[in-house]
Specification:
Layout: H1 2-24, E1 40-43, E2 47-54, H2 57-62, E3 74-88, E4 97-103, E5 106-114, E6 128-142, H3 145-148, E7 157-160
Parallel strand pairs: 2-3
Antiparallel strand pairs: 1-2, 1-7, 3-6, 4-5, 4-6
């Protein structure tokens, strides 16, 4: 009897796993099409960064806090539309970052290898850049990205957002 219960239990588990896999498959998408559903930034000549988007005040304030890593071709974009003056901090960030400050489709300032702020008091954290700068977007990527990918001030930046409401999506 125990053998039969174990067999039934194993069959039930396999059935549930099969259902989960079936429903987890993207409908009508191949792996190559998946990128169309992720916002990206084209930075400089040929760099593509897959983006998470922070646009609300709460999302902008939280940013990449508590993260311990970020893949090389991923980042977060902070949207400020219309453009306005900003400074960023690294309070509760657990990894170093490069910050690309963008206005009118061009990088106007880069802060490289910005270290985490380990202070318990956010007021003790340095601000980046040191002077307030007016921007429409800020892109944060892993530290060293700008140097590794030859990104420099004046480089063009374009954003591509997924198509929403497209038939079949």
């Amino acid at each position: 009897m125990k053998l039969s219960s174990d067999s039934s239990f194993k069959c039930a588990i396999l059935f549930v796993i099969g259902l989960a896999l079936l429903f987890a498959q993207p409908k009508g998408e191949s792996a190559g099409e998946e990128k169309n559903n992720v916002p990206i930034a084209r930075v400089g000549a040929d760099n593509v960064v897959k983006l998470e988007v922070a646009s609300t005040p709460a999302e902008i304030e939280f940013g990449l806090m508590k993260r311990t890593s970020l893949p090389d071709d991923h980042g977060m974009v902070f949207l400020f539309h219309p453009a306005h003056p900003v400074q960023f901090w690294m309070y509760n960030c657990l990894m170093s970052l490069d910050m690309l400050f963008v206005k009118n489709g061009k990088i106007v300032k880069i802060c490289e290898n910005v270290p985490p702020c380990l202070s318990k008091n956010p007021d003790d954290c340095p601000k980046y850049p040191s002077d307030v700068i007016e921007v429409s977007e800020v892109i944060e990527v892993q530290a060293g990205y700008a140097k590794k990918h030859h990104v420099k001030e004046g480089d063009k930046v374009t954003f591509e957002l997924p198509e929403i409401g497209k038939a079949g999506s």
